[in-house]
Amino acid sequence: MTDATAGKPPRGGQMLAADGTPLKVSLRRAMRAQKLRALLLISPLLLFVLLTFILPIGDMLLRSVENDIVPSTLPKTVVALQDWDPKTSELPGEPVFAGLHDDLVIAVEKKANTRLGQRLNYEYSGFSSLMRGVVRDLKSMDTSRPFMEQFIEADKKWGDPAVWRTLKTFSGEYTSGYLLNALDMQRTENGIQMKPEQERIYLKLFLRTMAMSLGITFICLLLGYPIAFLLASLPLRTSNLILILVLLPFWTSLLVRTAAWKVLLQQQGVINDILVWLGLVADNARLVMINNATGTTIAMTHILLPFMILPLFSVMKGIPPSYMRAAKSLGANDWTAFWRVYFPQSIPGVGAGAILCFILAIGYYITPELVGGTSGVFISNRIAYHISTSLNWGLAAALATLLLVVVLALYWTYDRIVGIDNVKLG
Amino acid sequence: MSLRYILGAAVLVGLPFGAAMAADDIEPCDGCANSMTVVSWGGAYQTSQQNAYSKPYAELTGTTFTWDESSNEAVAKLRAQFEAGNVTWDLVDVEGPDSQRLCDEGLAMPIDFDAVLAPGDDGSTPTADFGDGLINECFIPQIWFSTTFGYRTDVAEWNGAVPTSLCDVFDMEKFPGKRALEKRPKKNLEWALLCDGVTKEELYDVLSTPEGVDRALKKLDTIKDQTVWWSAGAEAPQLLADKEVVFGSTYNGRLFAVIEEQHQPVAMLWDYEVFDFDGWIVPADLPEDRKARVMNFLRFATDTQRLADQAKWISYGPARASSQPLVGKHADLGIEMAPHMPTNPDNMKNYLVNNIEWWADHQDEVEAKFQAWLTQ
């Protein structure tokens, strides 16, 4: 028993440090200096992460709701449209058309008209050519005549109330259009509705991405656990050799590995050739193992396996072998000793490996693009398409935002069920 | 011994490059930047540009070239560079429709063709020489290329039948086997409708009707389960060479490589191939010294001889009329290139040009429908 009163302040007074200041104050001062030093030490990294990662990503995610282009390109039109009731089948009045004329003259000068056309074309097909056409239309317009009939003469689409309804619906600074689109929904006259069956795609891809990523993570665990176990229990010399074999794929280009899978898996590929030669598969019924979900699963499992094995290995390395021996000496058979004693201790490694694999898997796009065909592509492939080909950055941002939300939700669930402090990388 | 052999071979291969350079009419360039960043597609196409344009130009002027292989996402990247206010590219190789987009948005600079470009060897003005290729005021065309089908010539199940028309691609009974098509609606929808009884003239009218796209997809349904969908241009030739597919659509230059360079049992189907232009655009608002260098280079690299030279390394047709008679033999293979050009009259009996305007309007809607159809 230690002396229970040690460290307690003398009755009635505070404990003082050597220089006479109260100990609490002195301690706090020392801690503050330490914290400040720590903050200064990490500040370069903090700034770096903030400037190159958090701010750009925040900016990108903001694009999923940003609609500034409509009110800033057509300011007068948007104001004039406020009095128009989109539910009527009548066209807006002359002031709207006059405002449109003024706005478009400036827009054409700034070459902003086609960008606007592209933006509105996401919601209503035909805006793209309508807005490109205004360059030619404006030249022939006579400012002394009413603009309404002149616009409709130039392009009859201006006489379609649906065009104006779209313009009015998407005239705000912010829009839910992209996010709705990313959920296969659209805004119609009758409120928000699901898109027609044959245009729905994103929800399906989200579900597929989640399901296949979970599947891939599970296969990685099944394949990786025994290898990690072997690595942890073999003598150092042998285990180092196997570890190099595990790491070897890491040092090979991702594209090379993916291309190698093509050579192996395709219908005229090595595996099918061997199966046909062995007589297991008929020549005219070769297995389809690539350009579908199977191809994606196989190639991605191969790529992600090291991310499962390494955390498992480092956790298992820390489990004393004497525990298993103790369990056995107390009468447990091999399986009980493993399942009741060893496995629970390796759970932090399983958690770390699974989270790592899963998070990497849902963001993958180059491997599914190359070996996924149509049934093995992920949501990231659509994001990449909208970023670099269709240039619909708003929709890409909306899809990315949803993906982020799903990941955070899963992370939260994981934390509630398993506990995030129960994850170890070593 | 073997090293000397390799070195000797390198010198021999190097010779034609040197012989191709004719240092005749290069204009002096005052106050020009000493380096250029050029954006292209990589692969054999970029090599042909380097051999025909930039290598001779660098020898004459000492300009250093940096190549960036970003053409397939040039519009996105250029837009991002403009948003960040830091344009690092000097000259960008893009397809026709992309140039239209960049020009419309003011990201590409309008060019005064007759002032900037060299007149044709036959004395014609650049405007007349390039003709239909000048699809907008920013775009300087280099080549015609076409997207067409290649087929394997050794398919036993075909019993000696040889595909002669585009619609044989859709004939599963006579020509069984897998097909490779691009994972995009563009071109595929047009081909499907043409083989569903729609004429070339009515094509976009039919596509504009609400049922048009569905009709095309329905036609594609007949081969859907036998189709491998590609997204990179190199995939279809590879699939053909590996016997994975019996028909594959791709760029004619890629098929040329499979047939003539790799000697695979593959042949080209010239029927309703889709024509398109590829060419240069200059980013808007370049600093004066960089702009001067680009203009000087452009005048050299798009003259009659240089455009004809490019066809020594790749089977794409030069965009100038005056270059056509100068198209000679392949630099390494020594075969005549003219019969392999998409612009060769024999290859142009039936051809198609995408309606850029229609695609600009319907791209978003049709792409969504097409991708949804693919995942069904």
Automatic annotation (TrEMBL), chain A:
Tagged with keyword Membrane: yes
Key words of the record: Cell membrane, Membrane, Transmembrane, Transmembrane helix, Transport
Pfam families named among the record's database cross-references: BPD_transp_1 (PF00528)
SUPFAM superfamilies per the UniProt record, alphabetical: MetI-like (SSF161098)
Taxonomy of the source species: Bacteria, Pseudomonadati, Pseudomonadota, Alphaproteobacteria, Rhodobacterales
Gene Ontology biological process terms in this record: transmembrane transport
Mode of membrane association: Multi-pass membrane protein
Record has Cell membrane as a keyword: yes
Entry's transmembrane regions: 38-58, 210-234, 241-260, 293-315, 347-366, 393-414
Name under which the protein is recorded: Putative spermidine/putrescine transport system permease protein
Domain ABC transmembrane type-1: 206-414
Localization annotation: Cell membrane
GO cellular component: plasma membrane
Domain of life of the source: Bacteria
Family: Belongs to the binding-protein-dependent transport system permease family. CysTW subfamily.
From TrEMBL, chain B:
InterPro entries listed in its UniProt record: SBP (IPR006059)
Xref: Pfam families: SBP_bac_8 (PF13416)
Signal peptide coordinates: 1-22
Signal found in the keyword field: yes
Classification via SUPFAM superfamilies: Periplasmic binding protein-like II
Alphabetized UniProt keyword annotations: Signal
Protein name (record): Putative spermidine/putrescine transport system substrate-binding protein
